[in-house]
Specification:
It contains 16 helices and 24 strands. The protein is of the alpha/beta class. Helix 3 packs across helix 4 and helix 4 runs parallel beside helix 6. The relative contact order is 0.14. The structure holds NADP nicotinamide-adenine-dinucleotide phosphate and magnesium ion.
Amino acid sequence: MSKLQFDGGWEYAPAPESTDHIEVNERYGLFIGGEFVEPASGEYFATTNPATEQQLSSVAAAGTEDVDRAVRAARNGYDKYWSKLSAADRGKYIFRIARMLQERAREFAVIESLDGGKPIRESRDIDIPLAAAHFFYYAGWADKLDYAYPGRNVRPLGVAGQIIPWNFPLLMAAWKIAPALACGNTVVLKPAETTPLTALKLAELVRDADLPPGVVNIVTGAGDTGAAIVDHGDVDKVAFTGSTAVGRAIMERLAGQDKKYTLELGGKAANIIFADAAIDQAVEGIVNGIFFNQGHVCCAGSRLLVQESVADEVIAKLRDRMETLIVGDPLDKNTDIGAINSAAQLERIEHYLKLGRSEGADVYQSSVPVPKQGYWCRPTLFTGVSQSNRVVQEEIFGPVLAIQTFRTFGEALEKANNTPYGLSGGVWTDKGAKIFRMTQGIRAGVVWANTFNKFDPTSPFGGYKESGVGREGGLHGLSAYLDLVAGEAA
Ligand code: NAP
Ligand code: MG
């Protein structure tokens, strides 16, 4: 229901999603060997709601000893149960997880928004359904691996150590766990420090789904916990999603070890608008690409390259649209931009806002109101920037868009490729031929045309250059969890 105002505009009446139906424990242990256990150190840390700065729960801090216990549980789960099951039975367990996730979708969506700050519309319509879709998709592959790789023997790797970031907590857990289990591996997963709750809820769900003990283990903690997983001698594969800095450190640590690995890292994607594009749709796509999820998206369209002849029109339309975006309560169904995930991330974004100004950029911020409590950032544009500016080169991971113009196709392509990253890109034009030329020229793992930030479990995802190593999703995502040996299928 909308309420009319007489000061020139109108606004929606609040429509908060209820929290009555969710259950969050005061404290969570580590999920090891099918049960929640105390951490060896007895230490716990708080996870808070970034929209209110209030504590939601305490979660266990896993040390080296706990990680060792989790890896041993995973090895035991592999030797005793998971590797003994038929592939079809493995698939049935994963289907069960997918179905239970669908049944409990509302609860997971609310907890995701409470713990991480993202708008309920996104956790409800994107994160949770996509997480379930990944479990469904990979469940289907479990007993068809020989068909996926004809003429080759497929063997699981063993124990996978998996480390995920805070921007899509449950979805990243699904990207990691579903293909690993489908291929016959067992896992030890570490969620991010600021968003552990949906992974812990998933642990409860795994327990309710009666998975054999040790097949899925969830250990919470900070960076050290992740490092202990990477360094553990009995982990066969490391799957990491996070920043390029940490990814690089992990790669160095892995250099002397015999482990397979995949790294999904940062990005600085360009959305390219040609003068012949459908401008209104393109503007909506740009808004979706960078302000969606507070810009906490690795493949966010954080740069805009717009053809000079339509630049004024596009920027004017963007500004108008930004004035209508609602920043605030993540649980409100009208909210477009929720809370910044943590005080540390807000500080990082504000550092870049200052940096942009000192580099000579013009800064435009929408005038929408933001709540007093919590961590917020209004949608922001940088114009008047040049290719060498740090705000054009570096990942900010906030609702901040750097805008540049171009005249020719070649100039657009060169600018698009001129960053250390190569995760994604977008092109907006009426001409199919231009789409093909541009998508072939952009050195990035995913390029969208006349749309942005669309995901599907069947489609591989991953980066070029400093955006990572390996692919997740689709068949590529399966092969990352298998040893593929030449010869007849077993
Ligand atoms: P991050 O600081 O690199 O952290 C990622 C995960 O690694 C967290 O669980 C973190 O624990 C852990 N970690 C920190 N230091 C570690 C170490 N030395 N060894 C092992 N693990 C360690 O990244 P973030 O700030 O959480 O996430 C944002 C970044 O992720 C962005 O750069 C974004 O582009 C990237 N990302 C990429 C993709 C992709 O698919 N390419 C998807 C999503 C996000 P703590 O939480 O305790 O720090
Ligand atoms: Mg939190």
